[in-house]
């Protein structure tokens, strides 16, 4: 993490770092007066790994920049460098916005500029409180530098050090102790605004049944009296979110504006507006958040789901778009979430990232707004493709069957039922074969527990399948105009759209009960246009013109952003004419006067994420032949950043990828490795592969210019990192992995490349 310089010794093939500060030198066992001699301890540090221990391996390792718009934070620290102070304040503002990745980057950057600054490490620890092992590691560095801090700073360090050392089972004691430590800081330094902010945040995160919301609110008011645009508006929103959201309307109007560069700060007011059923305002906030995140990730070459709140914001935005009738944008954003790069660490179907949420919301919006042809189309694409996840595949078959029945393709619908029934029979056979008899290697009690667990899992899977089959048989009955049977079957199945069920009930002839059910749904779904549009339609079909007009008037008040070409709304156009409204019956939305000054959304960033442009490069191989990014114009390729012939992990990576080069080529993908070696040592890497030779072209980037351009470089320790990239034919970075260790799964890269690149040729991706 600390400033350092490269050296290369011809005797050793490894890269070594000369550490800039005394403590770092001590950690690496390098005497200050003899640092040019590599030691055994340094020699054992793996390429790409931090020279300060495991805690520094993870997290951001590229330098920060002063981005502005991260909050009105003033936390004076002991440093002679005013730039260090600016990065520290930026990091704290980012921390207040729960932007932990960038907060850590700012704090680590501050430490790289002033290695003796204790509070820079305290900040990095704060940014990792969700990962106590890393927090402890950073805090150890802060404690080691306490002599460089003043009394106030030492109180902060001691308070956090005591907090992270508490036994995890003693949460109440730990939280109480930390509360008192922060209060002690305030007793001695009553004007310390950030101590009040940190105390307010801690009271929220540690809240219990005895926590006084009014006391916490009063503490926040003390902050706003001094600094009206303080980032602590974020904390007040969290406090009142689920209890009395009206109490945080003032903060909702200022939160995003207080820290406009932090996406999550735009998102948070959406909590309050959603709770108050102000979905247009909520959607605006969440769209602002999405756009700010997209702009940041595109600019800084960060993969989307590396930002931990990103997927959460976008899936909530889609829900609110559904509520206000922005159906096309909801579909577009859900598809974009599925299109995003996947990574085993943070975005797969098994994790709550963009892939999971995007697929979930795409199914929801397509079903809600009767987009049956689109659903069938997307089910035959990478968007809603078959999956090995059993519950997700059952859901896919159920939705696909529904779409087929709704479009009149009953045979295709029945095929989905047949597939579900086949799965059910397989599951029942598995259940029949399950025995309570433990194996010889398992004691009787343990065997019973395992058998019971297996039975419960099978019961859950069986119920899921039986429900899906019942629902599809209900839809089959409806397709055959047997609405009564369809209603009875759907009523007994879970996860059935209640609005749709009420409409089926009406079609079965039970008009009064159906209308009553719809009114109840409308009342419980305040300001949502979908159930209200259904009520308008049912009231009209029931001949209740006066009631229909009243409901239509209510719908029009919410109609500003409705997509009129969507079936539910298109069916209302002839009704609107009969009631005396215009063909375009929507009413322009009037922005409320309590939402603060809002910038134009386009000024914040793009609605959709798109990949960044890869840097151009031109490098020579061992024979002096030049290879360049222009060679791959129109052809996608994988580039591996290789840390020299002495890196055993890199050699293992090449040995994993090399045998599959033909598969990549058959998929239309080139492959190349960029090495830190000079041309002479590059030859050794090639000769070390095997007698046949390395099938991956290997080029030299000894000055590390290309490493740095791709950000495959630790700016804090001045050393190269491991990197694997997928670059498309237009020179865009479609996927990347930058880490202290190489990415070892060529199968994942190949499959992901095929998925991502197939979107380019698919008009459904546009």
Map the helices and strands:
Blueprint: E1 4-8, E2 15-19, H1 22-27, H2 40-43, H3 82-96, H4 100-113, H5 118-126, H6 132-144, H7 151-165, H8 171-188, H9 193-205, H10 213-226, H11 233-240, H12 249-252, H13 255-258, H14 263-275, H15 279-300, H16 310-324, H17 327-339, H18 354-368, H19 372-379, H20 390-406, H21 410-433, H22 444-479, H23 483-491, H24 498-507, H25 511-524, H26 529-541, H27 545-556, H28 567-570, H29 573-578, E3 618-621, E4 626-628, E5 637-642, H30 648-657, H31 661-666, E6 670-675, H32 679-687, E7 698-700, H33 705-709, E8 713-714, E9 719-720, E10 722-727, E11 733-739, H34 746-758
Parallel strand pairs: 5-6, 6-7
Antiparallel strand pairs: 1-2, 3-4, 3-7, 5-10, 8-9, 10-11
Helix pairs in contact: 3-4, 3-5, 4-5, 5-6, 5-7, 6-7, 7-8, 8-9, 9-10, 9-11, 10-11, 11-14, 14-15, 15-16, 16-17, 16-18, 17-18, 19-20, 20-21, 20-22, 21-22, 22-23, 23-24, 24-25, 25-26, 26-27
Describe the structure.
Residues 430-449 are annotated as: Disordered. One of its GO terms (biological process) is response to stress. With 766 residues, the protein is an alpha+beta fold. Among the domains are: 4-44, no CATH class; 46-165, Serine Threonine Protein Phosphatase 5, Tetratricopeptide repeat (Alpha Horseshoe), CATH 1.25.40; 386-491; 497-579, Tetratricopeptide repeat domain (Serine Threonine Protein Phosphatase 5, Tetratricopeptide repeat); 618-765, Glutaredoxin (3-Layer(aba) Sandwich), CATH 3.40.30.10. 54% of the residues lie in helices and 6% in strands. The protein has 34 helices and eleven strands. The strands form three sheets. A seven-stranded mixed beta sheet has the order 4-3-7-6-5-10-11. Strand 3 (618-621) and strand 4 form a beta hairpin. Helix 3 (82-96) runs parallel beside helix 5, helix 9 (193-205) packs antiparallel against helix 10 (213-226) and helix 24 packs antiparallel against helix 25 (511-524).
